[in-house]
Design brief:
The complex is a heterodimer of chains A (208) and B (239). Chain A is an alpha/beta fold. Chain A contains eight helices and six strands, in the order H-H-H-E-E-H-E-H-E-H-E-H-E-H. In chain A, strand 5, helix 7 and strand 6 form a beta-alpha-beta unit. In chain A, helix 1 packs across helix 2. The mean pLDDT of chain A is 92. Chain B folds into two domains: 77 residues, Nucleic acid-binding proteins (OB fold (Dihydrolipoamide Acetyltransferase, E2P)); 155 residues, Recombination protein O, C-terminal domain (de novo design (two linked rop proteins)). Chain B is elongated, with a radius of gyration of 19 Å. In chain B, a hairpin with a 3-residue loop joins strand 2 and strand 3. In chain B, helix 1 runs antiparallel to helix 2 and helix 3 packs parallel to helix 6. A five-stranded mixed barrel of chain B has the order 1-2-3-5-4. In chain B, strands 7-6-8 form a three-stranded antiparallel beta sheet, with no helix packed on it. Chain B is built from seven helices and eight strands; from the N terminus they run E-E-E-E-E-H-H-H-E-E-E-H-H-H-H. Classes of the chains: A alpha/beta (208), B alpha+beta (239). At the A-B interface, helix 7 and helix 8 of A face helix 1 and helix 7 of B.
Chain lengths: 208, 239
């Protein structure tokens, strides 16, 4: 007996959805059937949103964040401090830092991190553009906000070496314990770094 | 065996879904296994930094139905914080992890392979000698039963001092047989020492022309054996 298959158009839709990150074959099937059951307007809205985003959104010519214009909102905002640049791996990291409302400088999105095991080297990242910005925009501080994993640390080490410019402050985001977490569950590396980067809250500073 | 424990080294990790990772582990008793570490990318993950490449850990895994097991507990044996202290250490550790990942078949335990990797990572952590990756490649190939031949010509078995190294043939060729890439007497002596019980002397050699020649040759030999280029070496040359 021949195997019962989906109509070609349905199978194409399932295959297309299944190629999205984090969507397995079962999830792809579920989403496809949801779209087929929903009214035509919902599917049109989704299709239009995808097309509009693909058409309009590109990368900011200065910081390589996602943007609908040649320059993103942050790079066009005169109230932001252009002398301090926060370096992140991905556009979503910009959103995470903006949520803190602690940072009023500008960003530089590397679009990845150095990854020896995946063969991603510095020439595949936006590092050359960062170095050009530092000189052209008279940057006084670069904050390296790459992820605290092996790839992020390798990127931070490389940037530190490349940003050895007189008068430029290069800082690295602190490592430590997440607020609301329990000390007993902290791993050795994180706890060790939290101790190393402790802050004096009273009295003289401890001897080095 | 639905739940099992093992000592393991994290060879590499890759992202899975929203906050998970697949970790590739080299277990001492279980060999190379892939397992899902749920929520490990969240800042409040109970695994924290324990499952970073190069970490030596004791893991508890739940055997999955497919090829992926599930990480349920992790305790650190050696965190090796110095592996991320400078670019050279990061690159050398990555080279060791990559080559072991490519050499080790899934779920075929070889305790010696695990012990060699742990030992080499320890040396990178401690003092990071320039010849460590090259020496490791040669020792690993020897342990896998495909040691390169540095003494006798691979064609006629003659012992000659003026030789070339035929990478594809896996050994030196004498002057009369000819062929292969040229190799200096000093580099040849270093390669012989690596496989002949002189590893500690070799690891004390400072960076120089000879160490670079041996490094390049050993990389070419291991790449020829694996039939692919090592990604970590490519990145090393650009950083």
């Amino acid at each position: 007996m021949a195997e019962v298959a989906f109509a070609a158009a349905v199978q194409d839709l399932i295959d297309a959805l299944g190629r999205l990150p984090g969507v397995g074959p079962k999830s792809a099937q579920r989403i496809a059937f949801h779209l087929l059951k929903a009214d035509a307007e919902e599917s049109s809205r989704l299709a239009a949103a995808i097309l509009a985003a693909k058409e309009r959104v590109g990368f900011c010519e200065v910081c390589f964040n996602l943007s609908e214009e040649a320059r993103c909102e942050i790079c066009s905002d005169d109230r932001r401090d252009g002398h301090v640049v926060c370096v992140v791996e991905e556009p979503r990291d910009v959103v995470a830092i903006e949520r803190t409302r602690e940072f009023r400088g500008r960003y530089h999105v590397l679009q990845g991190a150095i990854d020896h095991l995946q063969g991603v080297g510095p020439e595949q990242l936006r590092i050359r553009e960062l170095l050009a910005r530092v000189t052209a925009e008279q940057v006084t501080e670069v904050i390296i906000c790459t992820n605290p994993n092996l790839e992020g640390e390798a990127t931070a080490l490389f940037l530190t070496k490349m940003l050895d410019v007189p008068g430029l402050v290069v800082s690295r985001i602190a490592n430590g314990l997440p607020v609301g977490g329990d000390l007993e569950y902290a791993d050795e590396l994180t706890l060790g770094r939290a101790l190393e980067g402790r802050r004096v809250v009273a009295g003289p500073a401890p001897a080095e | 065996m639905s739940l099992y424990r093992d000592d393991a080294v994290v060879l590499r990790t890759y992202k899975l879904g929203e906050a998970d990772r697949v970790v590739v582990l080299l277990g001492r008793a279980t060999g190379k296994v892939r397992a899902v570490a749920k929520g490990v990318r969240r800042t409040r993950s109970k695994f924290g930094s324990r499952l970073e490449p190069g970490s030596q850990v004791q893991v508890q895994l739940h055997e999955g139905r497919g090829e992926l097991d599930l990480v349920t507990q992790v305790e650190t044996i050696e965190a090796r914080p110095n592996l991320r202290a400078d670019m050279s250490r990061v690159a050398h550790a990555a080279a060791l992890l990559e080559v072991v990942d490519l050499v080790a078949p899934d779920r075929e335990p070889v305790a010696r392979r695990y012990d060699m990797l742990v030992g080499a990572l320890g040396v990178v952590e401690e003092r990071d000698p320039p010849l460590l990756p090259a020496a490791f490649y040669l020792k690993l190939l020897a342990a896998e039963g495909v040691a390169p031949e540095f003494r006798e010509c691979v064609v006629c078995a003659a012992v000659d001092t003026e030789v070339g190294f035929a990478v594809e043939a896996g050994g030196v060729r004498c002057r009369s047989c000819g062929g292969g890439r040229s190799i200096s007497d000093e580099a040849l002596a270093v390669c012989r020492a690596v496989l002949g019980g002189g590893l500690s002397v070799v690891l004390d050699l400072p960076d120089g022309d000879v160490t670079r020649e041996v490094d390049s040759l050993a990389t070419a030999i291991v790449e020829a054996h694996l039939e692919r280029r090592l990604r970590s070496v490519r990145v090393l040359h650009t950083t």
